[in-house]
Amino acid sequence: MNFRNRFSLCFLVVFSTLSALPVNAQKRKAKKKDQPNVLIIYTDDHRFSGVHALGGMQVKTPNMDTLVADGVSFSNSYLMGAFSGATCVPSRAMLLTGRNVFDLEGQGHSIPPEHKTIGEALQAQDYNTHIVGKWHQDNASLARSFDSGDRLMSRGLYLVDHFRMPLWDWKKDGDYKFEDGYLLEYDENGKVVRRPVTKDEKRGPSGTEKNGPHTSEIYAESASEFITDYRKKDPFFMYLAFHAPHDPRQAPQKYKDMYPVEDIVLPPSYMAQHPFDNGDMFLRDEELAVWPRTPEVAKQELSDYYAIITHLDDQIGKVIASLKESGAYENTLIVFAGDSGLAVGNHGLMGKQNIYDEDGVHIPLVFSGNLIKDKGSKRDAFAYNFDIFPTIFDFIDVDAPSSVTGKSLLPVINKEKTSVRDYTYHAYKQFQRAYRKGDYKLIEYVRANNYDKKNGETVKGSRVTQLFNIKNDPWEVYDLSFFPEYAQQVKTMQQEMKEKAKELGDTKENIEGEKYGFWEFY
């Protein structure tokens, strides 16, 4: 065989081998140089209507509104639920792993190695992964998920004060010690300085803008510096986890002045008191305001909520400005989402330990930036926060890890499909379950056994059924469950909800550490 024939044969063999490779693998290799940066902006206790462009409320959010205008937003985006009163723990575990609440390890405090995090999975795609802000999971999963980080929160002490937030520097070995924590304060010249955290620090919201920078300012500055200084060839993934607008609802005075209490308009679902015991009426979040929640009390809480959101909005604006000034905006996918809803007076509640929409599970979700083509559009498809992970991987055209159980929303974003699921299911501890299909949402409550260290064995909750038409009644004001004409609707949804519970694995045995299950008492 002469040289030309041998060369032709080799060429055919190589060409055939490449042709046989999976299409995704070929795309992955071809697109490596142009992989987009990914920025997730995750806010805390930030309900859907806490973004003006989404809910049309009084809150001023011009920078978040710009993200909505420059992207695709989901009108029916949700937290699935929680088996902890600190709903931000499972919410973040779901976001980071792409797994639903029944697929987590326990309540979500720990992420086992077999549940690949989005940071780990992007590292495998040659992304540089970076975290700023709040981390509610274990140190081991933190260490393996990121290459770097800054201004970490929740590593050993929480003073319940946005102006006096203990912080930790990034440690790749994940060994965070109490004595390594520090506070940022202003010195006599107004310069930001750091001092060690001591064991006798006063807990509670005693700080003001005169003491030190607000958490939102700290995290936004750190994120902006990372973006501005980034020089590596590989794309970056940044998880920017703000603590706002979580209580205490503190903001600099100029933001508080934007929302005079007397001018606040209460939403349709405002109530002075919740009409029945929902199972978790007397935990920390609910003790932030007195009972009954008079209009004056509710307006004050809502005024403070709007103020800290508007302050947060300004900080988000600084991060987006750094993307644009650095040139990174052109090739960065921005995902903006909240971790849960929040009542702030709705239905007589203050916290998020429920599965009403705005009060507990309805969240903002926006895919934004230069790379999004159908700008300013909204989608009605049902979505969960754990769909963010597979959507990002679909967007960068690589396969998500097999441990991910969420669904990619990219076909909905690209208008290839109108939806990827036809219902949502929600759970809160052993007390509440909800099932949404079409325009209707069924919520079921039970009176159940409970155990906690403070009170031991107790019985809490009420056996109540509610049915709402979310399309006509998005604030869930008008309970339809007792009207004869809706009897069949209730019965059908109750049966379907039981079926979905089995499919999802909604049993106490499936949630490590749970002593009681909802379906034992239903």
From TrEMBL:
UniProt keyword annotations, A-Z: Calcium, Hydrolase, Metal-binding, Signal
Domain Sulfatase N-terminal: start-end pairs: 36-397
Cofactor: Ca(2+)
Residues making up the signal peptide according to the UniProt record: 1-25
Chain segments carrying region Disordered: 195-217
InterPro entries for the chain: Alkaline_phosphatase_core_sf, Sulfatase, Sulfatase_N
Pfam families named in the record: Sulfatase
Family indicated by similarity: Belongs to the sulfatase family.
Name of the protein this chain belongs to: Sulfatase-like hydrolase/transferase
